[in-house]
Amino acid sequence: MKFKTACCVFFFIAFLGTANAQKISSSELFNKLPEIEDRECSFKQEKILKNIQKPLVSNGNFKLVKGEGVYFETVYPIKSTVSYTNKEYKQINDIILAVSNRKYSRLDREFSLDYSKNKNVWTLKLEPREGSKAFKYLDFIELTGSEKIDKTVIVTKDGSKTTQWFMEK
Amino acid sequence: MVYGKIKFAKILIVALLMLIFVFGIIFNKNQVQYNLVKAILPSSISETSNITALSDITSKTIHVIFEDEDEDNLEEIKDNFASEIDTADFEITEYSPEKLLEYYLSQSSNFISPNTRELLKDKDYEIVHHQALERLYNPGGFQIAGVDKDPYSFLSDFVLSNNRDKKSTIDNKNYDILDLKLRQNTDRVKDLILLRKNFEGEGTKIYLTGTPVHTYYTSTSANLTVNVICALITLLIVGLTWVYFKNLKILLFIGLSIIFGFLGGFFVAKATFLNFHIITVLFGVTLIGIGVDYSIHYLFSAERDKNFYKNLTLSMLSTALAFSLLFFLKIEVMSQIALFTISGLICVYLFILLIYPCVDFPPPQKTFNTDLAKKFKISVLTICLVVTGFGVFHHHFDDNLSALYTPKKELKEGEALYLKLTNPNDLKARFLTVKGDNLEDILTKEEEISGIFDNNMVNYLSLSKFLPSEKRQRENFELVKSLYNNDLSSFGDILTSGQISALKNQEFNFKEFNLNEAPYLKNFVLKDNTSFMMYYSSDKISLNKDFALETDIQGDVSDYLKHYRVKLLKLLPAVYFLLFVLFFAFYEKKRAVKMFLPILLSSLFTISLLSLFFELNLFHLLALLLVLGFTVDYSLFSSQKSENTKNAILLAGITTSASFLLLSFSGFALLSSLSLTLFIGILSSYFLIKVFE
For residue range A59-91, what is the model confidence (pLDDT) as tens digits? Predict the structure, then answer.
């Protein structure tokens, strides 16, 4: 997967503070989505990578600080903390900050958005537009939630699938 | 009858020469060049040194800096701007890992980041294992090669370690940079300037930086300068000639003599030098002012006897001799100026010798009393001595290359911003050239130097960073294989035993990379199997490697300028002494002193006056040599007592000094230094000759 794709992926992680299938523009979409707020919760992650025996399962704590970035503290199976706040992950952090500040023009340029809602649970599917930077590497991203995002699914062109569940502590 | 034939033959010779010059210039495809470093570097050095090769690279590089308050908008503008660039004129040379990914993937076990390499060398397998798991479980982690091919995600780690993200934020403004390489014609920069105008708007600003942008603006303003100077000098000559002669025929012939001289000079210089510098073209304009002198002397002379032609020839020779001293410096642009001016002067001289006697010119209708009042003479002498007294001990020299060119404010801002964005720690960017027998040899040597940089915690950029040598790739492969044999079995719950066995038993695989596929990497290669590395450090890192040469374009060229300035400073007294001896040999003592003193005093006055206001450089001193040529010329003619000759000297002095005064407003500090010195020198020598008359 390309580095830029990783950035796109994290664009959606930034929604975690807070979506009948229909094509929708980013401006319409964000009227429907809840405000982004600071958030601290648990997460569980399952990575199904191509040509490996079984999924890579991990869990830990998640924190979003508006205007700063996000932190993933993995506690199982290894102890590790990744923060998307510093210069090393500038691209990711920039996108997170852009979402926090509700600057969504990039979305319309890069993705076609499919929004659906069933009772209180909404699903947003984002597919890279042909010719966009992510098109070559990313198949789609799916976000599911009610008041806040509960699940993200990222599927890449090589068949890898990463699912993350976010649960209140 | 015979006289008629001779007259016809003379006209025919000039006409034929004129045709040769015109066609020679038209069919000579040598291009005008704008590279200031190449122009002022001594030719012996420019042929062998890497300075020119490095300056060639920089002379084609353009950085487009995008500034926007909105980061989303910034990326969109950069992408759209890049998509509208004509790739026939510009090559986008941004680092793009995609182009290398295919190569990396074909031998994925050969690439490891410097940090991981050190850990593997130290056999710190536990740390390496933990880092691999961190990458695997990292929510944002990504596996370029696939877990079955690269379970430790070394390739992802390697690509990330070379990430060249140029985005940054300063004072709430977002910046990104697009790197371009100009393919051929500097004129195409105009398209970028137009494109910039289309994209700039509220909150969005685009800066264009890099040598081609400076060159474009310089050449545009140089063209304007040439046109303005030509127009003003022509107007001056027309006005003065009308005042004296009130005859249009004279103007026509003066014009023809100058055109003939200009074409001759241009033809010879363009045929001799492969690259004809814009500075030579600019300086060439002064030929109008210099060349008109001979016409003036001819037209004012009542008796065109042997003595007159002797003086005219001596005058031409003295000026040509002064300019010929420039050849000894072996600085290309100075040789071009010398050859252009000498050829031009000879052509004007020939035109006057061959054509003027065939035409009946009316004598001057009016002459002015050019004698100076005694009080005025005393004032001139007093001012001269006082200024010399104050200035001669006040002089300071500035040999820095940057002092020879002052960019426009807007360009200066762009360059400062580029430095701020790419070198935030404000360390000096240093260039190192590495010579090898072939690409593999170069890469191996670069890696040797990289080790020294890594030990000194120095940030650097090099080709081998992105493209390790075969030797290094083999070493990496062995380190990875050793890790697999010791640690890979711990990945048993992720990989099958077949996958583990395949990884452990894999053979080293290497294939060469075609640099043409990655313009960013190709940029690191200079001529003759030489590459360059760039490192940031306030102090020079001691390498002691005979294949690596620290090349500091600005510093090295400045050193050469200083070297020649010191050399010339030592030579100048000898030149004046020689002149003094010559005057004593050819003229009676009193006259020799009267001829020599104004020359010496005007030189001292000129350099002293300049010292009071400017820091001096090599080109101020060079101009002093040229001043000698002109003042000797005036001294020779001033020996004739007639009013006509005195008026001729006045007129010649006015036209020549006016040409240099106008040229001193040129944007090139090199030219303005030269011209201002000539202007002050010629003007002061005229008055001092009158004082001692």
Answer: 999 998 876 778 889 999 999 998 876 555 555
Omega into B364 within 30° of 0, i.e. cis?
A: no
Short-list A111, A112, A65, A69, CA closest to A91: A69
Tell whether B102 is within 8 A of chain A (Cβ). no
* CA-only gyration radius of chain B, Å: 33
pLDDT for position B45:
60
Compute the distance between CA of residue B123 and CA of residue B119 in angstroms, rounded to an integer: 6
Separation of CA B212 from chain center: 11
Of A41, A19, A28, which is closest to residue A147 (Cα–Cα)? A19
| ipTM above 0.85 for this complex | no
Q: Which among A1, A13, A53 has the least Cβ separation from residue B142?
A: A1
What b/e readout covers A53-68, taking b as 16+ CB neighbours within 10 angstroms?
A: eeebebbbebbbbbeb
Burial (Cβ within 10 Å: 0-12, 13-18, ≥19) of residue B38: buried
CB pairs under 8 A between A and B: 92
What residues in A contact B133, CB-CB < 8 Å? 77-78, 80
The answer to whether the beta carbons of residues B197 and B394 sit under 8 Å apart is no
Rounded to the nearest 5°, which phi and psi values hold at B437?
-75, -30
Q: How far is CA B53 from the centre of its chain?
A: 13
CA gyration radius, chain A = 15
Helix (H) or strand (E) holding A2: none
Model confidence pLDDT, tens digit, residues B260-288: 998 999 899 888 887 777 778 777 777 77
Q: Any idea which residue has 């001829």 for tokens?
A: B595
Pairing of strands B204-209, A80-84: unpaired
Say which amino acid occupies B461: L
* SS3 state at A56: strand
Q: Which pLDDT belongs to residue B608?
A: 94
Which phi and psi angles does B140 have, rounded to 5°?
Answer: -105, 5
Domain ranges of chain B: 247-395+555-692
Architecture of domain A3-167: Clam (2.50)
Separation of CA B322 from chain center: 25
- In angstroms, what separates the C-alpha of A82 from chain B's closest C-alpha? 7
Q: Count H helices and E strands in chain A, helices first.
A: 4, 10
Predicted confidence (pLDDT) at residue A6 exceeds the cutoff of 70: no
d(CA B223, CA B231): 12
Instruction: List the single range of A109-123, B17-31, B37-51, B535-549 with lowest mean pLDDT.
Output: B37-51
Q: Is B69 on the interface with A (CB under 8 A)?
A: no
Average pLDDT over residues A109-129: 85
